[in-house]
Amino acid sequence: MWPAVLSIVFVFLQSMANLYLPTLMAEIVDTGIVKGNMPYIFRTGLWMLLVTLIAGVFTIIANYLSSRVATGFGRDVRDRMFEHVEEFSLKEFDQIGTSSLITRTTNDVAQIEQVYMMILKMMTMAPLMCIGGIIMAVSKDAQLSLVLVVSLPVLIIGIIVLASKAIPFFKAIQKKMDRLNLILREELTGIRVIRSFNRTRFEVNRFDDANKDITQTSIRMNQLMAAGIPVMMLVMNLSQVAIVWFGGLRINSGAIQVGDLMAFIQYAMMIMFSILMGAMMFIMIPRAEVSAVRVNEVLDLSPDIHEPPVRSIQSAPDDNHGILFKDVTYTYPGAEKPAIAHISFAAGPGETIAVIGGTGSGKSTLLNLIPRYFDAVDGEVRVDGVDVRNMSLEDLRARISYVPQNAVLFSGTVAGNIRVGNEQATDEEVREAARIAQADEFIGKMSEGYAAPISQGGKNISGGQKQRIAIARALVRQAHIYLLDDSFSALDYRTDALLRAELKKFNRDATWIIVTQRVSTVLDADRIIVLDDGLIAGIGTHAELMTTCPVYKEIVASQLQKEELA
Asked: CA 549, CA 530: separation in Å to the nearest integer?
C-alpha cells in the first residue's frame, strides 16, 4: 500500500518539477539573454539544472516504487491463482483446459502487471501534466491558448477512434495465444506418438497455421497503431506550427515576449503528450481488462469439490472401518449415461480388493471417488466410517496412498521423487520402499544411484521404471488405504509376480484396492469386483467368479494362454 502511495507522491513531485522548467527557460530568455544579464543567466541556469536533477531523482524513485508494486502485485496474483487452481477438481481442469490455465497464469497476469505499472506512473502524471500545462499556458497568453481549443478535440477524437478499432484485436490475440499454447503443449508431450506415426510434418503445419494466425492478428493491430501514431503526430506538429505563427504575430504586437512563446510551445507539447500518455493508457487498459476477465474467470470458478463446513466435519474416523460404497452412481458432466451406477461394496482393514473389467468399464472412476477427485452424484462413499464429503480433504488424503494410471514423476532425483510420498522418510525407508516396488535393482545400476536425476515427467527412464518409482512413492507413505490404478500395466509378468509377493508382506493392516486388467494380478485378492459398462457384474474370489460370472470367465479366457506361456 505505502509503496504505491509514495510512487504517486514522487510522480506528482516529478511533474511539478517538469512544469517549472519552461518558466525558468522563459526567464533566462526574456530577462537574461534579451537584456544581456549574464550573471542572471548563469544563476537561473544553475537553478534550472538543479531542478532537472531533482526531477531525475524523483523519476528514478517513482519508477522503482511503481515497478516494485506492480511486480509484487503480479507475484501475489500468480500465487493466488496457483493456490486456487490447486483446489480444483478434475472437472475444472477439463472445463478451462491446462494450456489456458498456463496462459492465464503467465501471459495474462503479465499484461495486468504491465498496465498496473503504467497506471502508477502515467495515470498520475498525465492529468497533472495536462491540467498544469493548460494553467501555465493560459498564464503565458490566454488568446494564444485558443489554438489548443481547436487541436486538442481533434487529437482526442483520433485517439478514441484508434482505441475502438484496436480493442477487438487484443481480445482475439489472447484467445489465439491459448490455441497456440494448446498445440505446443500437445506436440511436446506427445512427441513420441507424433514421431512413431510420422505426423511430424502435420504437427509442424498445425503449429505454423496457429502461429501465422496470431501473427497476422498482431500485424493488423500494429498496422492500425502505426497508422494512428503519425496522424496524431501530424496534429501535434500542425498545432506547433500554428502556435509559432500566431505567437510571432503576438510578439510583433508586443503582447508576448519570445521567452514566453518558447515556454508556451513547451507547455502545449506537454499537454498533447499527456493526452497521448492517457490514450496509451486507455488503449492498454482494455487489453489488460481482457486479461483481467480471464484471470477472474479462474479465481471466480468455484471448485466442484468443497471443503465441508467446520461444523459438518466428523472428526476422529475409526481406522477399523476401511472403505464402504453405498449405492454409488457417478455421471461425467455432459455424458448421456453414468460412468458407474449403483456400486455397493465394503473393503475392511487388511483386505485386498481387486477391480477388473474392460476398457471404459468405470474402474478408474470408482477409484477416483475415494480421495474425492470427484463426488458421487448419488449414494455415499465412506472412508473409516465417515462420509468423505464430511471429512476435511487434508485428513482424507492423508489416509490414502495413490498410484495413478499414468505414473507421473517430477524433475529432481530418484530419492526426491520417492520422498514426495513422505518428506520425512529416511534413506533406509526410501530404499526399503524401492526394494518392495522392485525398483532397487535398476536404481542401483544408475551412475548416481538414488541421487540420479529424473527429467521432467520422467522422460529419461522407461515406463516400467516410472511405475515402480511411483509405487515406491506410495509405499513410503505408510497409509491406511492404498489405491493402485492399473499400476502394473508396464511391468513384465515376472516383475509383477515378485512385486505382488512383496506387497503381501507389506502393511498387512491397510486396505488395498487394486485396479487392473490382468487376471494374474487379481488371483490372490480377498475379493474381486468385476465391472461391466459401469455396473457390478460380479463380486467374489477367483474360484467363485469362475462359476458365477460370465464376464469374468470371458476375461480369464482371453488371457489364460498368454499367462500360461508367461
From this structure: 8
Any idea where the domains of the chain sit in the sequence?
Answer: 2-299, 317-399+479-566, 408-478
Question: Which comes out higher in pLDDT, residue 497 or 164?
Answer: 497
Question: For residue 135, what are the CA distances in angstroms to 8, 33, 268, 328?
Answer: 21, 26, 11, 75
Instruction: Please give the full DSSP string across 344-387, using - where no structure is assigned.
Output: EEEE-TT-EEEEEE-TTSSHHHHHHTTTTSS--SEEEEEETTEE
pTM score of the predicted model: 0.69
Assigned C-alpha cell, 306:
468443497
- Cβ atoms of 495 and 502 within 8 Å: the answer is no
Residue 310 has pLDDT above 70, yes or no: no
Query: Taking the domain 408-478, which CATH number applies?
Result: 3.40.50.300
Which residues are within 8 A (CB) of 261 and not within 5 positions of it... i.e. 6 or more apart?
Answer: 140, 141, 144, 243, 244, 247, 248, 250, 251
Q: How many CB atoms lie within 10 A of CB 2?
A: 8
Q: Give residue-wise pLDDT tens across range 97-113.
A: 777 888 888 888 988 88
User: Is the pLDDT reported for residue 456 higher than 90?
Assistant: no
H/E element, 159:
helix 146-189
Q: For 430, phi and psi rounded to 5 degrees?
A: -65, -45
- Distance, CA of 337 to CA of 495 (rounded, Å): 38
pLDDT, one tens digit per residue, over 347-386 is: 999 999 999 988 889 999 999 999 998 889 999 999 988 9
Half-sphere exposure of 406 (CA within 13 A, CB side): 4
Express each pLDDT in 130-143 by its tens digit.
888 888 888 888 88
Strands 378-383 and 323-330: antiparallel
Domain 317-399+479-566 falls in which CATH fold? Rossmann fold (3.40.50)
CA-derived radius of gyration, the chain: 35
Identical fold, 2-299 and 408-478: no
Write out the three cell numbers for 84.
486456487
The DSSP secondary structure of 58-92, one letter per residue, reads HHHHHHHHHHHHHHHHHHHHHHHHHHHHHT--HHH
Q: What is the largest distance, in Å, between two alpha-carbon atoms of the chain?
A: 119
* Cβ contacts of 487 within 8 Å, gap of 6 or more: 403, 404, 405, 407, 467, 470, 471, 514
Residues near 138 by Cβ (< 8 Å), separated by ≥ 6? 145
Residue 317 reports pLDDT greater than 70: no
Class of domain 2-299: mainly alpha
The dihedrals phi and psi of 401, each to the nearest 5 degrees, come to -120, 125
| pLDDT given for residue 143 in this prediction | 83
> Is 321 strand, coil or helix?
coil
